[in-house]
């Protein structure tokens, strides 16, 4: 990884351990590698979309792993102010995570878009491409039409309200294809950190490569319709539902 750079980390501490100092020790090691001018970024969104989000108290989704929650609790950390938040620690923290909410959640003006625009890197530490949120940015830039219809609770002028929206979400099993794409072009460094496999890549290279692939084969990440994958089937159905809504309600 680059000293002084911006690094977006997806990690499973269970896969990396043992680490002296636990998750806090892992965070300290990453910060040491980045140096004082570097910025560490992790996903830190809420696990319950139907509860109001408070950036100072709402825990990170348990599926993001314990390291993300430890980063959230660090007094030096800046966390995004909405439920699709990322957390960051370093000189560019506010620039990365101080984004306004956008729908779908991981578009160009989101934290993953900021990491890309800042020339940042992505580290998958003990997890695979299925956890690589930046691939969702590439889906949006490629113009994929599949969507899953979702809802969440937001706050407006102090009052909660329910928002229905469409997100380019699916089971993400197909993201494993990205490993071969990146390896074929020597765009991904791989090795072992502790007990975990690590993958390091540049965000803009990942987005460009995946975007180009999706423009040729837009549904390559989805299971075939006869595979019985509920999430991928919902994504296809959501595309039809969103199209019907927009055509019936005008441009």
Features of the shown structure:
251 residues, alpha+beta, two-stranded antiparallel sheet, seven-stranded mixed sheet
Short description:
With 251 residues, this protein is α+β, with helices and mostly antiparallel strands.
Describe the structure.
The protein is an alpha+beta fold and 251 residues long. It has one domain (6-145, 172-225). 35% of the residues lie in helices and 21% in strands. Strand 8 (188-193) and strand 9 (196-202) form a beta hairpin. The radius of gyration is 18 Å and the shape is globular.
The helix-strand sequence is EHHEHEEHHEHEEHEEHH
The count of strands amounts to 9
How are the strands ordered across the major sheet?
3-4-2-1-5-9-8
Mean of the pLDDT scores? Answer: 93
For the biggest sheet, the summary is: 7 strands, mixed
Q: Please compute the radius of gyration using only Cα atoms.
A: 18 Å
In total, the number of domains comes to 1
Percent helix range:
25-40%
Number of helices: 9
**Span between termini:** 45 Å
Shape category: globular
Outline the secondary-structure elements.
Blueprint: E1 6-11, H1 13-16, H2 22-34, E2 39-43, H3 66-73, E3 78-79, E4 86-89, H4 93-97, H5 111-117, E5 121-125, H6 134-142, E6 148-156, E7 159-167, H7 177-184, E8 188-193, E9 196-202, H8 203-216, H9 230-248
Parallel strand pairs: 1-2, 1-5
Antiparallel strand pairs: 2-4, 3-4, 5-9, 6-7, 8-9
Helix pairs in contact: 2-3, 6-8
